[in-house]
Design a protein that fits this description.
single chain; 97 residues; alpha+beta
């Protein structure tokens, strides 16, 4: 199980490709383990676009509090399919808040 980490490269102005390169190491170490990124727009929308489209500058607009999940084809490519996208209200019901 991966331990939570604070990363300086998860800022709204970060370049999505650089972030994926940094987290790819963790994804490659245990491809069966889930990897969760928590950040803000516009970075998260650009990361999501890069993960599902495989190219920059494709972006998926996200509202505050939304959750999105991507199932990677394989960690080496860091591309995959959108598994789910959930509005903040629905995400809050998962935790009972």
């Amino acid at each position: 199980m991966l331990e939570p980490q604070e990363r300086d490269d998860l800022t709204p102005g970060s370049r999505p490709g650089a972030v994926l390169e940094a987290v790819q190491v963790e994804a490659w170490e245990d491809p069966d383990e889930a990897l969760v990124l928590v950040a803000h727009e516009p970075l998260l929308g650009r990361l999501l676009g890069l993960l599902i489209a495989g190219v920059e500058p494709f972006s998926v607009p996200l509202s505050p509090g939304m959750l999105a999940g991507v199932e990677l084809a394989e960690p080496r490519t860091m591309t995959g399919r959108l598994a789910f996208c959930m509005a903040a209200e629905d995400a809050a019901q998962l935790t009972g808040s």
